[in-house]
Specification:
6-phosphogluconate dehydrogenase C-terminal fold; globular; eight-stranded mixed β-sheet; Rossmann fold; 8 strands; about 270 residues; alpha/beta
C-alpha cells in the first residue's frame, strides 16, 4: 500500500492522514476536497498534494472516504469507476447500513470495507486534525466476511493505535444510536432548553454544564445525514431516554432516585475503565 487518497480532508480525513504518517506510512497521501479544504490540509501537513477525483483515484491503493454520509453515498459509484481493480475503498461514515447497501450496489471494480472510527471533536477542518485522534478508540469495521478483511488495512489501523471491532452494519447502527447519537441529541436538547427557557443560567454555569453541552457545539450539517440514515434506531434510543427522564421526574421525592444514581454511576465507571 503505497498510495492513499483521502476524499474529504476535514477533521477525520485529516487526522487519518496525520496518523498513518506518524505510524510510518512512507507513501504518497493525496487529498481530494474543496480548494479551501485542501489548501488548509496542505498548510497543516496532512497531505502531500491535492488533485481532482479523476486524477487521484486511478493511482490509489487505498481510497478513504471521509465525507458527510450523503456525499459518501454519492461518491461510491464514481470512485469505483476510476479505481484500479483490487483497490480498497473504505469510509468513515457514522452510520453503516445505507452505505454498505449502496456499496454492494455500486462497487464492482474495487473492494469495499465499511468503517467508522469512534473518535472526533466538536471542531471541524484539517486545522483541527490530530495524529492521535484514533489512539485507544474503537474503530468499527463492517465486512461482509470478517475472515476476509484486508490484513494490510487492519495492520494500518493497529499502527495508528485504533482498536478494530467487527460488527454487522445493522448492529453498528443500533449501538451507535445509543452511544453516540443519543448523547449528541441530549446535549443539543439541553443547550437549546437552557438557551430558550433559562438563558440567565449561564451566569452560574460550572464545569458540569460545560461538559454536558460540549456536543451541542457540533454542526447540524454533519448530523443531518446521520439522523436521516439511522432514524428508527435513534427513535428507539430517544424513547428509552425520555422514559427514563419521566421516571426520574416521578421519583424526585422517593428513594428510587438513589437507585438511578447508583445505576448511572456504575455504568459511568465501567465506561471509564
Amino acid at each position: 500500500m503505497n498510495n492513499v487518497v483521502i476524499v474529504g480532508v476535514g477533521l477525520i480525513g485529516g487526522s487519518f492522514g496525520l496518523a498513518i504518517r506518524k505510524a510510518g506510512f512512507a507513501g504518497i497521501i493525496t487529498g481530494v476536497s474543496s480548494p479551501a479544504a485542501t489548501a488548509e490540509a496542505l498548510a497543516n501537513g496532512v497531505i502531500d498534494r491535492d488533485a481532482s477525483l479523476e486524477e487521484a483515484i486511478p493511482e490509489a491503493d487505498l481510497i478513504y472516504l471521509a465525507q458527510p454520509i450523503g456525499r459518501i453515498l454519492h461518491s461510491l459509484a464514481l470512485v469505483d469507476k476510476y479505481a484500479k481493480p483490487g483497490a480498497l475503498i473504505t469510509d468513515a461514515g457514522s452510520t453503516k447500513q445505507a452505505i454498505v447497501t449502496e456499496a454492494a450496489r455500486s462497487v464492482h471494480n474495487a473492494r469495499f470495507l465499511g468503517g467508522h472510527p469512534l473518535a472526533g471533536k466538536e471542531t471541524r477542518g484539517a486545522a483541527a486534525a490530530d495524529a492521535d485522534l484514533f489512539r485507544g478508540r474503537p474503530y468499527v469495521l463492517t465486512p461482509a466476511d470478517p475472515a476476509k478483511v484486508d490484513p494490510e488495512f487492519l495492520a494500518l489501523l493497529h499502527g495508528i493505535g485504533a482498536r478494530p471491532l467487527m460488527l454487522g452494519a445493522a448492529e453498528h447502527d443500533r449501538l451507535v444510536a445509543a452511544s453516540s447519537h443519543l448523547p449528541q441529541l441530549a446535549s443539543t436538547a439541553l443547550a437549546s432548553t437552557l438557551g430558550g427557557e433559562f438563558p440567565e443560567a449561564a451566569q452560574v454555569a460550572g464545569p458540569g454544564l460545560l461538559d454536558a453541552t460540549r456536543l451541542a457545539l457540533s454542526s447540524y450539517d454533519l448530523w443531518r445525514d446521520i439522523v436521516s440514515t439511522n432514524t428508527v434506531a435513534i427513535e428507539e434510543a430517544l424513547s428509552a431516554y425520555i422514559q427514563k427522564l419521566e421516571y426520574i421526574r416521578e421519583n424526585l421525592r422517593t428513594r428510587q432516585l438513589r437507585d438511578e444514581f447508583s445505576q448511572g454511576a456504575e455504568f459511568a465507571r465501567r465506561l471509564r475503565d
